[in-house]
Amino acid sequence: MDKPAIPNSFRTGPDEQGMFGIFGGRFVAETLMPLILDLERHWNEVKDDPDFKAELTDLSTHYAGRPSKLYFAEGLTRHLREVSSAKGLGGGAKVYFKREDLNHTGSHKINNCLGQILLAKRMGKKRIIAETGAGQHGVASATVAARFGFPCVVYMGATDVARQSPNVFRMKLLGAEVRPVTAGHGTLKDAMNEALRDWVTNVEDTYYLIGTAAGPHPYPELVRDFQSVIGTEARAQILEQEGRLPDTIIACVGGGSNAIGLFHPFLDDKDVRIIGIEAGGRGLDGIEHCASMNAGAPGVLHGNRTYLLQDADGQIMDGHSISAGLDYPGVGPEHSWLRDTGRVEYVPILDDEALEAFKLTTRVEGIIPALESAHAIAHAVKIVPAMDKDQIVIVNLSGRGDKDVHTVANMLGMEI
Amino acid sequence: MTTRIDRRMAKLKAEGRPALVTYFMGGDPDYDTSLSIMKALPGAGSDIIELGMPFSDPMADGPAIQAAGLRALKGGQTLVKTLKMASEFRAGDNETPIVLMGYYNPIYIYGVDRFLRDALASGIDGLIVVDLPPEMDEELCIPALKAGINFIRLATPTTDDKRLPKVLQNTSGFVYYVSMTGITGSALADTGKVAAAVGRIKGHTDLPVCVGFGVKTAEQARVIGANADGVVVGTAIVNAVANVLGPKGEKTADPAEAVATLVSGLSQGVRAARLAAAE
Description:
The complex is a heterodimer of chains A (416) and B (279).
Chain A: E1 19-20, E2 23-27, H1 33-46, H2 50-64, E3 70-72, H3 74-86, E4 94-99, H4 109-122, E5 127-132, H5 136-148, E6 152-157, H6 158-163, H7 165-173, E7 177-181, H8 188-201, E8 206-208, H9 219-227, H10 229-242, E9 248-252, H11 257-263, E10 273-281, H12 292-295, E11 297-301, E12 303-308, H13 333-341, E13 345-350, H14 351-365, H15 371-383, E14 392-397, H16 405-411
Parallel strand pairs in A: 4-14, 5-6, 5-8, 6-7, 9-10, 9-14, 10-13
Antiparallel strand pairs in A: 1-2, 2-12, 3-4, 11-12
Helix pairs in contact in A: 2-4, 3-14, 4-5, 4-9, 5-7, 9-11, 10-11, 14-15
Chain B: H1 4-15, E1 19-25, H2 31-44, E2 48-52, H3 63-74, H4 79-92, E3 98-102, H5 104-110, H6 112-121, E4 126-129, H7 141-147, E5 150-151, E6 154-155, H8 164-169, E7 175-178, H9 191-202, E8 209-212, H10 218-225, E9 230-233, H11 235-242, H12 255-278
Parallel strand pairs in B: 1-2, 1-9, 2-3, 3-4, 4-5, 6-7, 7-8, 8-9
Helix pairs in contact in B: 2-4, 2-12, 10-12, 11-12
């Protein structure tokens, strides 16, 4: 494929048709098209509305606990400097964590949910539907639905319901109805299909609260904008704490909402190296991974064109990742465009490498990271020892790992 | 340029009855059985055939068509084979229009230009691609029209008068009115409302208007057919196949015969539609 032209700014997309280069768009059934246009109209009204911004900022501050801290990970930095010395390199960059794990509900997902619930309220919608993989977005959706008094239905693959039972219970406590989806392989992709089927059936009163920066336009844009608070804060914080921009920023990419949230405010800082981490699963040789941008091809699914894991006939494949939050065969369209333009590098991290980073962070920092975030940390562990001591790396710690202790215990052959 | 669809619709209009449009899933449960179903359709009374292209993630379809698509994929169906099925059918029937129906990704991966060339060569007359609204016309609709293949658009209850012209703009062959907001196989909407919607669309276009989603019985076909130019039946046909498959997918009776029996009944419905309306 031809490499797209390098734009003057990487921060102006999407265009009026919702495209980032060839990616994005509005590939939906006609029934949904008027709803998506209506959403776009409301989104355009609120995105520069000071009252809307003020309400969101107030909730973000007092309800969700923003701004999240930018934390100098001294323990991990020290450890990686020892690794560097042992290799005779004598380097090791300073590692910072953007602490999205400290947000209410335990991950970055609340940023998007608060923004969208205010939008749903403005639109006069009466009912919230959402899809979830690991359950983080489901919990965040159920949380804001409870806070604003909306009935909420969360679609979740039956496989995920089984492997994320604590989150299922949390959603139920919050008053949401969790509908297990048995179609397909019972994971996030199937949950998203089912949420779309619900939306196409309940067009009058229902707001579809998509959890990642994917789906038909304007979702990739609006989710990105709600999540960009991560990068906007991080950029100001590092300037405040270090007096300069970081050399490298790293985030994990499933659908890619925490990553685009961190990346977007840095896209035009040409000297900042930006790396997105895909789930390499059990390796890219086989089919047990979710590295759509490293091992997939552009295609059309769930309302947008983007890199997808698919076979030669255009049938979508089920990926695999140790982390349910990265277990999705596609990725947000803006990431696909950033990949093709070369602005962002996307590299895979294997299940085992993520697990090692999970254990290391827990031990040297006293922080249990989400397995998703552990993928991003694992890449820092790889590259930091070869960097200089005066260099700076920011890793997005997108969520806390309490939800993952059962999975990790299983992997380690322990019972809890 | 007239197509088989245009000619068939004109003929039925002259006969004074609506078309029976039958959807089945290509490759369900296997290629040979599916081809035998396709070949049985015209004789049983089908006027236009919708040949379903299976897709792993059919977002607008209910459980019956989802399951049929998965059976077809499990049976090894691909877009190449679906086109082959059309051309094998076409070798014995040069009149019955064939409309391919499905989702965009398999076509996109096949390559739009190559797909249109091969579809034309296979005797395909029209396309219904669920996830390509008018906003995405440059993708496939306009190239298909240039190639001489009808692009049949879905209009839905959410398509209001303001939007309808946009939906109709590049539509040809016929307009497919989706009777309800929902997925295939749901319960039929209020037939009075459907009739009103058909009238509303006819106020905007001279194209025939066919109605689908929720039509399962001859009686429903008769009622819908009183106003519509065609009645589309899909889920009921797919279910007729599923009903003669055992728990392991083995055939307990001939699927082609089961489908033919159902379609014969439905065709009685459309043939009675205008008689009833005239009463």
